[in-house]
Amino acid sequence: MPREHHVFRTPGELHFGAGVVAAVGQVARAWGQRALVVTGARSSKASGALDALRRSLEAAGVRVFVFDKVGHEPTLRVVEEARSLAQSEGCDVIVGLG
């Protein structure tokens, strides 16, 4: 039986590496003005990464809305909750942290 061919494409970008948090604001600003930051409940706060990301976004003129309920394997309910927040706040860019 022949294998199916699958292609995954996304219009987004993936940025990672040392110092990337400081540059996220300018990158996100090219995509929109209202960002939903999707992250977990603890480590990004404890490490200071969430605060640094927020500063970068706000310095670039991007309004920040944080969804911090993501676990190891998010359920459909969690995804729907994040989508609902993004929609209600008019978010036009999503930034994942973690």
Please describe what this structure looks like.
This protein has 98 residues and is of the alpha/beta class. It has helices at residues 20-29, 43-46, 49-59, 76-88; strands at residues 34-38, 63-67, 93-96. Strands 2-1-3 form a three-stranded parallel beta sheet, sandwiched between helices. α1 packs parallel to α3 (49-59).
User: Which percent bin holds the helix content?
Assistant: 25-40%
Q: Indicate the mean pLDDT.
A: 90
Main sheet?
3 strands, parallel
Low-confidence stretches: none
Number of strands: 3
Oligomer: single chain
Radius of gyration in whole Å, from Cα? Answer: 15 Å
Structural class: alpha/beta
**Strand arrangement, major sheet:** 2-1-3
Q: Enumerate how many helices there are, as a single number.
A: 4
Cα shape: globular
Order of helices and strands: HEHHEHE
C-alpha termini separation: 39 Å
What percent of residues are in strands? 5-15%
Blueprint of the fold:
Elements: H1 20-29, E1 34-38, H2 43-46, H3 49-59, E2 63-67, H4 76-88, E3 93-96
Parallel strand pairs: 1-2, 1-3
Task: Explain briefly what this protein structure is.
By secondary structure, the protein is an alpha/beta fold. Helices cover 39% and strands 14% of the residues.
